Amino acid sequence: MKKLSFVFLLLLVTAGSVMALPSYSGLRGLNRTVDARPAEAGFLSIGLFSFMGISPDERTAEFSTGEVEVTDTEYSGTGYITLGYGASSHFELAGRVSYLLNQLKREDVENRLGTSGDWNGDDGFSEAGLALKYTFNPDAEKLFFGIMPSVNFSVYNGGDNNFVYNGDEWDGIWNTDEPMFQLRRPMMNSGSVNFGGDLLATMELDAVTIHGNLGYRYFKQNFSFTDSRYDASHNVIATEEVDIDVEDNVLRLAAGIEYPMNKTTLFAELEWRHFLDREFEEGDGERFDDCIQIAPGARFTFDSGLAMDVTGSYCITSFDPEYNDLGHRYFQSNVAQTDEERARYAPFPNGYAPKYGVGINLMYMADLNSRPSILSGTVTDATTGEVIAASVSFPGSEVQGVSTNAASGMYTASLEEDTYSILVAADGYISATEMIDIPSDENITRDFALMSVQGTVSGTVTDAGTGEALEALVSASSDMQATTDRSGEYAIECAAATRTFTASAAGYSNQSRTVEMAAGEVVVQDFQLSIQLNFENVYFDTGRHNLRPDAKVILDGVAQMLISNPGVSVMLTGNTDSDGSPEYNQELAENRALSVRSYLISKGVSELSLSTVGYGEERPAVPNNTDENKALNRRTEFTILAAPIQ
Questions:
Q1: Which domains are seen in the chain, by residue range?
Q2: pLDDT of residue 286
C-alpha cells in the first residue's frame, strides 16, 4: 500500500509541474480519440496524462475446506508523457513514453494472506511510441479526414532496473512466485513491438464537434514461465514449462463528442476494442473478445496556453479472470493443453480496461514560429504636417501603450502576432483608430495624421421632391458624423481640411458632397435626397446567359425608370451558382451582366449610365445546397451608383 501511495503521489506532483497534450497518442484530440483536424504548422505541444483505475474482481479460491468466493481489487495507474509538433498544415508528428503501475489488493480469507501477502504489483516506464497524422478536408469548413500510422516499442525488459520496479518477483493470486496472469493488466508492456493505423474523421456542427477513429493494431507477446499444479495444501505436485508467442489482431473504434463553452469544453468518449483472435465463449452466452468503455470529461483552458482535463471512465463489458490465466485452470485440473489452447487465454495486449477510473491531464501549446514584430511610425498634424506629441495605445490587449518622441514624433512598439486595435490621441486633435493584423517577426510602419478640432459643417437634409425635413445621418468617417434634428438640421465640428460628407436616410439614395473648410470656418452644406430606386433581380437558366421572357419583362420596366432618371448610374453585377469550375463561372457571370446591359441599351438607356462586373460563384445570395437555392444564385443584380436631385 505504501508503494501504491508513493507512485500515485508522484504522478500528481509531476502533473502539477509538467504540461500535457490533449490526446493519449500525443496528437491533437480529446483523450482516446484523435482529432482529424490539423495542428497548425509550428505549434508544439507538451503533455502529461495521469489516470487511475479501480476494478473489484471476483475469484474462486480452492482451499482444503473447499471453494471460497473472494473479491480482490486491482489498481492500475497509467501515465503518458507526450510531445507533438505541427510539421505543416497537413502533417503532425507525436511521440510518447508510457508509465504503468499494476497493483493487486487481496481479500483476506482462510489465512490466504499468510501465503501470498496482501499487496503486490509492478510499476515503471513500459513503452515508447511514435505517431504520424496526415489530414485533408474536402469540405474546407465542416468535415475533416485523416490517416494515422503508429508504432510502439517496449522499454521494459523484466526484473528490477533503472526504469522498472518489480515488487517481489512473481507473487501470485494464490501462491508465492506464481505468475499473476489473472489480473486485468498483469504485463508491463504489450510485446517488444506493436504497430497499426487509424482512419480519422471529424465533423464540426453548429454547437458540437464529433470525432470518429477506426483502427487496426497487431501485437505479439511472449510468455515464458513455469506453470504449477497444487494440491489442497498448496504443495506443488506437477509443473510444466511454458514458452509461447501469442499474436493478436485488434480492431479499435473510438468516438468522441465535444461541446465548447467559452473556456470550458465538455466531452464524452466511447472506445471499443475487438480482439479478432479471441472469438470464443464457454457455452454460457458470454463472450470475452470485446472491451468497451465510456469516458466523460471536462477541459479547462487558460490564456497562457495551458489547459487541464478532468476525466472519468466506466467499463461496460465483463471481465472474467479465468479467461486471462494462460490456461492455468485447465492445467490445475490435469487437462493437457497445446500452445494454441493456452494462447486463447493469454492476457489481452494493453490489458483489459479497469471497471472505474479517473484522470487528470495537463497540457500546454506554444507557437514556435511566433516572433515579436516592431511597429513604428510618426504622428503629425494633418493640415501642417508638423510632428505632434501623442499617445499610442492598444485597447483590448495587454500591450502597454507608448508615447511619441517630442522632437521627431516617432513611436515604437513590440507586438506579438495577433490582431490589434490602435488608438492614437493628442490634446486638441481628433483621435485616430485602426485595426491592424500583426504577423510574426516583421518591421511594420504605420503613420498617423491627426486633424485638429476646428471648424463646423452644418446644414439641412430634406426630401428632394417635397422639401420636407428628413431624419438622416451625415458623416465623413465613423468618428465624424451627426444625425439631423426634427428640423432636418445637423452640425459637425471637425478639423480644417477638404473632405467628403455623405447624407443617408432610410428609403432614400445616398448623396455625397465635397466640403472645403478652413480653420475656424463655418461651412453650410445642404442635402436634398431622392427616393431610392429599387429594381428586381434578373434570373437565368443553368449554364445560360441569354435572357428569359420573364427577365425581359423586368428589364422593360427598368429601362423606363432609367430613361426617366437620366442622372442615375447603375452597376450590373452578374452571379452564378457553384456548379462548374471557378473559371467557367466567372466568364458566365460576366456574360450575364453584359446580356442585361445590351438589352437595356437596345431599349434606349444611355451606355454611359451602365457598367458591369462579374462575381462568378463568390457572392451567393443563399447557400448552394438545394436546386431551389441555386436558382436564386443564377442572377444579375442592380446597384445604384448615383441618383439625381429631383
A1: 2-367 (2.40.160.40), 373-450 (2.60.40.1120), 456-529 (2.60.40.1120), 538-642 (3.30.1330.60)
A2: 59
